[in-house]
Amino acid sequence: MNKYLPITLLSVFLLSGNAFSQFRPSPEGLKIERSLQMINGLYVDDVDTKKLAEAAIRAMLRELDPHSTYLSEEEVKAMNEPLQGNFEGIGISFNMVTDTLYVMEVIGGGPSQKVGIMPGDKFITVNDTLIAGVKMTNQDVISRLRGPKGTIALVKVQRRGVPELLTFRIVRDKIPITSIDAAYMVTDEIGYIRLSRFGITSGEEFREAERNLKKMGMKHLIFDLTDNGGGILQTANEIASEFLDDDKLIVYTEGKNQPRFTMNASGKGEFNGGKVVVLVNSNSASASEILAGALQDWDRAVIVGRRTFGKGLVQRQLPLPDGTMIRLTVARYYTPTGRSIQKPYVPGDPDGYQQDFMNRFEHGELFAADSIRFPDSLKYTTLVNKRTVYGGGGIMPDYFVPMDTTGTMLHARLNANGVINKVAISEVDRKRKQLLRSYPDARSFARDYQVSALLAEKIEKQALTDNVEWDVEEYEASRSLILLQLKALIGRDLYDSSAFFRIINEQNEIFQEGLRIISDEQRYGSLLKGFGSNYAQQ
Fold first, then answer.
1. What is the pTM of this model?
2. Which listed residue, of 30, 78, 301, 307, carries a Cα 20 to 30 Å from 371's Cα?
3. 141 in a domain, yes or no?
4. Domain that holds residue 101
């Protein structure tokens, strides 16, 4: 029965308000309460005791571990929203370019589509508030577009080729938050699915993508979890169950005051027989690590990329009477072989914890396979093929892919200032109909479209307009990457996010290595048996 209990990486149990009665006031707790009373009653000036109490709670939690935190009411809401599977708003994705909102995508069946909003439209006003040409953050704009279901957003829109502003009355509604960034066929038999988060609806989204790709002939899968920071553990269980037979252990938790709790596969392994490659990097965390670790331990997938983040602490959500919340670490996550996912940390030093990526960078782990060594104490044995895998924090891939070093500071400056995106939006804004006539689908666009020399020149012109320092040598060094990104952004604006990843993956070395492995039966099988890894052992 345990395996059906919903668990998130943010919470294992939701403590009811009266559950705090189990905790008797301690001398230390009375000491804190008495201190607040004395400050409030005797301090020379007026004080905000709520603010002081929050500061005290945050300071206490800071002395524990990096993931025990205090959340205000606003932070609680912001934390839960991406995992809920929906929000209430008008149903568009947008980009702010030179202080103007450009509609990038209109969500199918949503409120904006129903009234005729189109990609490429520019929002000028929302409910009589001017949003074009004024300094507004993305959050400012979002706060004006979102609102309770049934409320009205009256927007004025500028549309290319139409001389006057168009007025639309949009009735806000529930808008689904999707977590599948891309799903497409790489070859006749190899599919690709990219998952950005583990939300409430992600399991069903994954199964739908899986079903659609199977109809197209998919027999093998590249599953992309790079930059996926986690989410709901139950969802990770659902997806893992697509690959593992019923009742196989996926993860267990254990802590000083928390007895061992196991989660097992609850399906029939619908994706049976086919090869699976899972892509990960140092931003793959939490639920991503649990899923990757389970598939690795059961020898069901080859993991490709770089060592994952190492977030393996279980937080229990403890609501406080005023709507705030404490997320308190109560246990650790362990893979089926017993590996702790959590990387080492020093209690009371969250800043040092956040420096882990830079430490990996400086030690060479991100660039050279021979810089990665594991002692015997961190060796574990998989459950089917009895090959060696490694603990010590995070999931170490079966095949290491170094970080790409082709990027330049110019490329970084162009991205930071939105230069490439602006050129892409402008091109689609001018040529949308022409491009769609020439390239009716994302596959033909990815295959046949070439960035013209004239369009490439616009990048430099836009950079100069935005006062971005130009460097000819750096441009030549990263030219192919810049132009590929431009093409991918144009593809995204014309079709969807799948088009973006279909194109950008052409130079994504983690993806390319995964594709080479899954395309080579012998190499794939060797890695699953413990041969062919490219990092040193000791």
1. 0.83
2. 301
3. yes
4. 86-176
Q: How far apart are CA 474 and CA 457, in angstroms?
A: 15
Q: Which position among 3, 122, 275, 311 bears the catalytic label? A: 311
Residue 426 known to be catalytic:
no
DSSP calls for 251-310: EEEEETTEEEEEEE--S--SS-SS-EEEEE-TT--THHHHHHHHHHHTT--EEEES----
- Tokens 């060796």 belong to which residue? 379
Of the residues 114, 146, 176, which one is the last residue of a structural domain? Answer: 176
Q: How far apart are the first and last CA of the chain?
A: 42
Instruction: Examine the domain organization and report whether 289 and 368 are in the same domain.
Output: yes
* 136 shares a domain with 192: no
CA angle 38, 39, 41 (to 5 degrees): 65
311 is catalytic: yes
Q: Are 205 and 179 in contact (CB under 8 A)?
A: yes
| Active-site option among 297, 356, 493, 496 | 297
Task: Give the whole-angstrom CA distance, residue 483 versus residue 459.
Answer: 9
Same domain, 296 and 377: yes
- Rounded Cα–Cα distance for residues 144 and 231 (Å): 27
Catalytic residue among 68, 112, 196, 286: 286
The per-residue DSSP string of 29-69 comes to HHHHHHHHHHHHHH-SS---HHHHHHHHHHHHHHTT-TT-E
Residue 456: pLDDT band (50, 70, 90) is: very high
* CA of residue 142 relative to chain centroid, distance: 20
| Domain identity same for 276 and 385 | yes
Element housing 392 (H / E): none
Amino acid at 335: T
Among residues 219, 150, 222, 148, the alpha carbon closest in space to that of 183 is found at 222
pLDDT classification of 340: cutoffs 50, 70, 90: very high
- Summary mean pLDDT of the chain: 86
